[in-house]
Design a protein that fits this description.
Two copies of one chain form a homodimer. Chain A is an alpha+beta fold. Chain A folds into two domains: 12-148, Nucleoside Triphosphate Pyrophosphohydrolase; 162-226, Winged helix-like DNA-binding domain superfamily/Winged helix DNA-binding domain (Arc Repressor Mutant, subunit A), CATH 1.10.10. In chain A, 31% of the residues lie in helices and 27% in strands. Chain A is built from six helices and nine strands. Chain A has helices at 56-68, 108-113, 131-148, 162-173, 179-188, 215-226, and strands at 12-23, 26-33, 43-44, 46-49, 74-81, 92-100, 116-120, 192-199, 207-212. The longest helix of chain A is centred in the middle third of the chain and has 18 residues, at 131-148. Chain A is elongated and about 60 Å long. The first copy, chain A, binds a DNA duplex through residues 161-163, 178-181, 183-185, 188, 200, 202-208.
Chain lengths: 227, 227
DNA sequence: ACAAAAGTGTTTCGGCTACACCCATGC
DNA sequence: GCATGGGTGTAGCCGAAACACTTTTGT
């Protein structure tokens, strides 16, 4: 390795991924038993080293693919953690991402192979080092995102009812939302499309399924209105 | 240097600081002529290497002290920039911060010594590498902050008029605010204290000076109301 | 019949916006 | 007197919140 221009100390650079999922009315966190020292066999976030020829986002995508078998995962930078002593194994600067994955689509055998487990977020065990704080920060950032745009496209199945969407929001914010108001609010955003298909499992009356419309579809609809 | 636990490639890790100031109704950006190759003598953000024994925040604080002579500067992480080819001198991952400094208090001789210049943000020159994008991201983040809490404590002098505060907001958002509504809004936040002192330079009638009350003072006031 | 969710309608309240309007004073 | 910013008041609009009410259907 040669960097003719720069002479300075090098650093270990890692990414850690806070992986959120959703199932049965619960916001979930994917956590794995660490397979190497230090802190082997303790619960931790999924992480990996950043290679010289990739961005930190690409490193996170690699890590996510390794454990879920999924590509095209929603990713967002959270924070850099860089306390010199944060990792007893040496100086490691970690860039934290959070991800949202559709729990029903991921590869469960890969998760099992990594000795990883989906925890309900409130019931997660203590994680190593500063990983608990990473989860806190990521959860904050997720709430912030969810408060100014509709999340769920990456966490819910392709089609879902307004009830399921509301339960997701209640899980994310750990509070209840008025069913009527929540419904009116999300439908006013014009990002959901009602399907000619009803869910009759969760209610007697049956509730229409909805799906997220893509951004281009939404744009087209907007244009038609505006002409 | 020894890291017995980890065997992996190392990275160059840097911080770059988007330094905002404010003067004469203009949001300012501090930019310096780069003193080393590559891209010597071109405009760039102030940056520095992250040392092994410090956090990235501490590295940013060092950089800020070097150029302003100030400590206790408001700092916020913006984004990590990590395109492998972003810096022609080699693989450098950069963590971007933005800072707000009181333009009237900083050490102008240090700025001069670094061949740095305060530009009005809209008139800034093209910066090296991806630094223009860093400034954009930082400005976005600043706007976001300013939209959910009152900024100015770090940019304005100790005492200031509502007009001056409004002009700061107009500079940050590049739009006008209704004077009456702006006044009522900021005063309703209960974070400003009116002084028995008027500014008679900027208006015939004279306008009261205000100052930010500290967080603890604000807390106490809240408590008194709530009892 | 009743419970339980679906879906709609209504009322109230608070905050934001767009103003109008008086005040003080330097020119 | 008039222009300029300081400062206050008010009417209208809109969205959020609270909640009533009707619909549908499995049990």
């Amino acid at each position: 390795m040669s960097h003719p221009q720069y002479k300075h100390q090098h650093q270990y650079l890692a990414v850690d991924c806070v992986i959120f999922g959703y199932e049965n009315g619960q916001l979930k966190l994917l956590s794995a038993k660490r397979k190497f020292e230090p802190a082997m066999d303790q619960w931790s976030l999924m992480g990996g080293w950043v290679r010289m020829d990739e961005t930190v986002e690409q490193a996170a995508i690699r890590v996510l693919f390794q454990i879920t078998g999924l590509r095209d995962i929603y990713l967002e930078q959270v924070q850099v953690f860089s306390q010199p002593q944060r990792d007893p194994g040496g100086r490691v600067v970690s860039i934290v991402f959070y991800a949202m994955i559709p729990t029903d689509q991921h590869d469960k055998s890969l998760v099992h192979e990594h000795e990883a487990v989906w925890f309900n977020l409130p019931d997660k065990p203590k994680l190593i080092f500063d990983h608990d704080q990473m989860v806190e920060f990521a959860h904050e950032k997720l709430k912030q995102k969810a408060s100014y745009e509709l999340i769920g496209a990456d966490l819910l199945p392709e089609k879902f009812t307004i009830l399921q969407l509301r339960l997701l929001y209640e899980a994310v914010f750990q509070r209840e939302f008025d069913p009527g108001n929540f419904r009116k609010k999300v439908l006013s955003l014009k990002v959901l499309e009602r399907l000619n298909d009803k869910n009759t499992n969760e209610s007697k009356k049956g509730a229409y399924y909805f799906r997220f419309i893509t951004k281009t579809e939404a744009l087209i609809k907007e244009r038609i209105v505006k002409i």
